[in-house]
């Protein structure tokens, strides 16, 4: 709900208030962001102005004022939200309020980029137009607030109202000026096979931190999701503010703590390598950034974001539909397969209850390794003599759905398509382009290249009964020809992805980028699940899935049981541990099932039965992290149904210890007045007992031991 009271705008979500006001000089200042306030007279807003050390038209300085969209070159000397070379060649800018508009139930208008949609929720959008009369441009800052969420989605549009060109050097999507407090910054950093590690540091006066990525996609190294937490905020307590950028290109989250300890947090396109020229009348849209607030700690942020992303971000009809349990041939065969081998895997998988067979890399051109054929999307008849259509039919005849891997954005130099169109790759004129994984990137800023990628994929998808697509992208972006190219490429990527996913609405799409190198809300708007990491070791996955779940729903986290010794780190874990960790995710297998022993196959069959029961819960439940593997020898999490009548709990002890303490894990989210039965052991518990006294997981005396519990509401007598 948006309340406009004189010069004050009050945005109210479910439990959150966000207040800003236009001062006497026309500046749009920020007043409050936090726990929901009633709509009152706002006398205190005026009082707050006077506290800021001499507010008044004659002697004010914006350097001490919290602002909504700060400029540079006037009186605020902190990092600005934007920087523009204006029609006169100058960079000084001052934005003042011009007008505003409140619209009911309409999503933000962000040309060419994904954003939250309204659906059946009640939402309002506030667009405030700020103008720089002198420099000749307008900035429209937009806020969408939903009655039933604690999120506020923001975006920015810049319009050139002058008669000359202007150049945008930087444009952040969200700015949050927060008063002094003991904040901690939490962000997610890593690399290939170790994506989204969780890092936390105290915010000290004077620091300026740029959490940014310029690798092309949103990246393995830094995720476009951050949190600003009150000191010591944990999973269940403390105030936490988060920002999620709905964007898959180079991004930046900038934090600056000024001389008074006030904090400015901004998120948007990475200004490094960015520049955008606007001719007379043209406009530029910055991507959407979703702010979320919780006074119930990090867990509160997660559950809110999970709901928002599951219900108002991803357009796929699969978002809230049970996903098929798959088997993928990549770690089973890599490039070394033929039809017979694949069919034997599919048959054995079907026997155990698998529902979807995914043919990964290596099915096209002459591709027997990474060095050739990328971009030549014709089936390799030596490996698949039946062709894709015929092979899909064979898989369907076994009783499985059929899925296929693509990497639509790349080509190998050794490919027909590259030989035909060497100028189609991302390159800088006069410089030998760099290969990565023997690949070049296709230049998706060009319409004819996008058209090629779309046609190549769509032709295959219409040629056979393909019900799932894994969309991979395996290299960073180099050889960038000009500033702003990465953003233009990202728009091309969205155009291609939008066309293909909307042309095949029944296909389940899974995002991937050398593992989890493009795990972001932009991709999630089109594809409901993403391959989380190439690191499939169950122990490393405890960390990766734990931290990924902070910002993204469990229903987006693809998790496979793979062979041991693990192919990435050589670790040996039991089949049970591998499955127990994968249940809280989109469950599947990626190993040569034909090599499993009879007893292992029996175990796989049981695991699949378990997951089939659990998966509706995994799609729609509330996720609680109970033990942090980054901090201790344990990892535990649980998924609780919205009505609290069902819960799945996974507890893990990482290293075995002799003579160690009795471990108790206190559950969360259950109804203290309900009784529960553990379907695996038939033990009966009171909800209060599980919440306040906890459970004692039964760990084996070996490393990486896991214990799972499946609680259902129990109406019988208790003991
Ligand atoms: C990287 C992906 O993360 C893997 O799962 C696999 O699809 C390979 N690419 C194939 O080249």
Task: Give descriptors for this structure.
719 residues; alpha+beta; 10-stranded antiparallel sheet; 8-stranded parallel beta barrel; 13 helices; 21% helix; binds (2R,3S,4R,5S)-2-(hydroxymethyl)piperidine-3,4,5-triol
Set out the fold topology.
Elements: E1 2-5, E2 8-12, E3 16-22, E4 28-35, H1 43-51, E5 82-85, E6 96-104, E7 123-132, E8 137-146, E9 151-160, E10 166-178, E11 183-189, E12 197-202, E13 208-213, E14 222-230, E15 240-245, E16 251-257, E17 263-269, E18 276-278, E19 283-285, E20 289-294, H2 297-312, E21 326-328, H3 330-333, H4 339-352, E22 356-359, H5 387-398, E23 401-406, E24 410-411, H6 416-420, E25 440-441, H7 447-463, E26 468-471, H8 485-503, E27 508-511, H9 521-524, E28 529-531, H10 538-551, E29 557-562, H11 575-583, E30 586-590, H12 598-620, E31 622-627, E32 634-640, E33 646-653, E34 675-678, E35 684-686, H13 687-692, E36 705-713
Parallel strand pairs: 21-22, 21-30, 22-23, 23-26, 26-27, 27-28, 28-29, 29-30
Antiparallel strand pairs: 1-2, 2-3, 3-4, 5-10, 6-7, 7-8, 8-9, 9-19, 9-20, 10-17, 10-18, 11-12, 11-14, 13-16, 14-15, 15-20, 16-17, 24-25, 31-32, 32-33, 33-36, 34-35, 34-36
Helix pairs in contact: 4-5, 7-8, 10-11, 11-12
The chain binds (2R,3S,4R,5S)-2-(hydroxymethyl)piperidine-3,4,5-triol.
